[in-house]
Amino acid sequence: MLLPSSLASLSATADVLRRAGCVFAEDEAALLHEAAASPEELALLVGRRTGGLPLEHVLGWAEFCGRRFAVDAGVFVPRRRTEFLVRHAVALAPDPAVVVDLCCGSGALGAVLAGALDRVELHACDVEPAAVRCARRNLGGLGVVHEGDLFGPLPERLLGRVDVLLANVPYVPSADVELLPAEARVHEPRVALDGGGDGLDVMRRVAADAPRWLAPGGSLLVEASERQRDAAVEVLRGAGLSARVVVCEELYATVVIGTAGTRDPVGRGRVPNPGGQD
Ligand SMILES: C[S@@+](CC[C@H](N)C(=O)[O-])C[C@H]1O[C@@H](n2cnc3c(N)ncnc32)[C@H](O)[C@@H]1O
């Protein structure tokens, strides 16, 4: 057990954190000092962190797109790289927009997107009760959070009306979950990480149903690893969406954007985008 006196200064706390393997020890020390109301609480928080709990779970919040979102124990911590997906979603959203954040976790993605738009109807869904509770806190009155499997809990009136479908689904191949850092492997639920054999099982299910829910010209945005990019493009194209890839090397982010066809002017249904790709 750490004694409070060993944490009397920021640099002493940073030393303790560094010895425990925290790479950004100074930054973390500052955040933990800010969060603790007393030396005893600081010792408790530092003990949790050096015990391996993700910093965000120790603090109870994560920074995403410059804002702080509540992240409860057992809820996936939104990653910096996913800010890239949200930036593209903001650029694609019409005004007004119907937005669905599938597999919403803490709800941070939908909250940022809704905050960037003037008129939005936002629905978020997750299968994990802890994520649903957390997303409800983060969204407040911004949108409705549903609990259940993928599109299952969405109201049917949204069929064919979704302009932007955010789906940062789990995409780690099952065999690679054991290789993840302990912070994710031990403290985030497996259902938030494991995407099946090649990591794309949940993405396949989302893509297969997406055309029924998307409005004409609406977009599905998914994240993948660099290794999965070609397979992910095929998944979206196989579902009848046009697909393009955008990459941010700085954030190690790969996003595949699938777009639904627009309405045929003579009313024969959807016209796919030219060539089915961008
Ligand atoms: C990689 S996390 C992403 C969370 C959030 N979108 C983000 O980027 O911070 C994947 C989320 O998908 C949820 N999930 C996994 N399978 C699901 C399913 N079949 N239906 C609904 N949610 C699911 C998990 O509970 C988890 O919150």
From TrEMBL:
<dbReference type="InterPro" id="IPR029063">
    <property type="entry name" value="SAM-dependent_MTases_sf"/>
</dbReference>
<dbReference type="GO" id="GO:0102559">
    <property type="term" value="F:peptide chain release factor N(5)-glutamine methyltransferase activity"/>
</dbReference>
<dbReference type="InterPro" id="IPR004556">
    <property type="entry name" value="HemK-like"/>
</dbReference>
<dbReference type="InterPro" id="IPR050320">
    <property type="entry name" value="N5-glutamine_MTase"/>
</dbReference>
<dbReference type="GO" id="GO:0032259">
    <property type="term" value="P:methylation"/>
</dbReference>
<keyword id="KW-0489">Methyltransferase</keyword>
<protein>
    <recommendedName>
        <fullName>peptide chain release factor N(5)-glutamine methyltransferase</fullName>
        <ecNumber>2.1.1.297</ecNumber>
    </recommendedName>
</protein>
<keyword id="KW-0808">Transferase</keyword>
<feature type="domain" description="Methyltransferase small">
    <location>
        <begin position="82"/>
        <end position="198"/>
    </location>
</feature>
<dbReference type="InterPro" id="IPR022446">
    <property type="entry name" value="MeTrfrase_put"/>
</dbReference>
<dbReference type="Pfam" id="PF05175">
    <property type="entry name" value="MTS"/>
</dbReference>
<keyword id="KW-0949">S-adenosyl-L-methionine</keyword>
<dbReference type="InterPro" id="IPR007848">
    <property type="entry name" value="Small_mtfrase_dom"/>
</dbReference>
